[in-house]
Amino acid sequence: MGFFSKLFAGLKKTKESIANKINSIFVGELDDEFFEELEYVLISSDIGADATEEIIEEVKKLSKKQKVKTADDFKALLRSVMVQILNDANNDEISFPALITFVGVNGVGKTTAIGKIAHKFKNEHKNVLMVAGDTFRAAASDQLTEWAKRSGVRIVKYSEGADPAAVVFDGISSAQAKHDDVVLVDTAGRLQNKSNLMEELKKIDRIINQKWEGNHKNYLVIDATTGQNALSQVETFNEFVGIDGIVLTKLDGTAKGGIVFAIAKQFGIPVKYVGVGEGIDDLLEFNAEEFVNGII
Description:
Number of helices: 12
Strand order of the largest sheet: 3-2-4-1-5-6-7-8
Shape: elongated
Helix content: 40-55%
Radius of gyration: 21 Å
Structural class: alpha/beta
Largest sheet: 8 strands, mixed
Distance between the termini: 21 Å
Strand content: 5-15%
């Protein structure tokens, strides 16, 4: 299955939630009743109140100016406004050598996402190192090791219960010695309590800032099926370590893909990757225009 086919298939449920509803409410008159119904469609698709308000205001203004009459013209206008919201998020390009720390709660598919991203960089002829910084969960290191074998990349890991910051320190030393292009750091998603987890992540972040001389990004991995609950995760992790990008997993299993707009509008954080299936090539680089075309 090609890139666009995978993306459109992955967005099927979100498309049914948004595009089909818009088709049902569009009767040619862009009056107050129509925009009230459109507002309901967007909010019910987890686009969020702030992003919905901006979309409605901009579409109202432009539809009047452009004298929009047909459903196709209206959807083209709506697409352009929605793409702009996503593109307004601060989307810095990554440079190499790069270290990416992956954070997120347990169960969102963090380790799997790292494995798939490692595979992607490997296919781009980058030297990749994985660092098993989740020493709290025994299975995490084993799972990451399997992904390292599958992707054909190196891994630095310690035994369960080791100091995660020490693993990261040694991982950076190894990457520098081997002149690796990309370092992908896994982290714990759960400790004894949220305070312990966040302090551990801050400690890892300090080690990286002190020792790593290349580009450094923090990516938050979110399960798309959680919808609006994802916003609280973004807020918490962003407060403690600063989030540069979002990896949205399990997009193919939900109608809540609209959450990307809420994140972009509320936090100005771009989505970097979206998961649209179980295969190793089913984590796709995010493209705002293609995403919006896939849901409307």
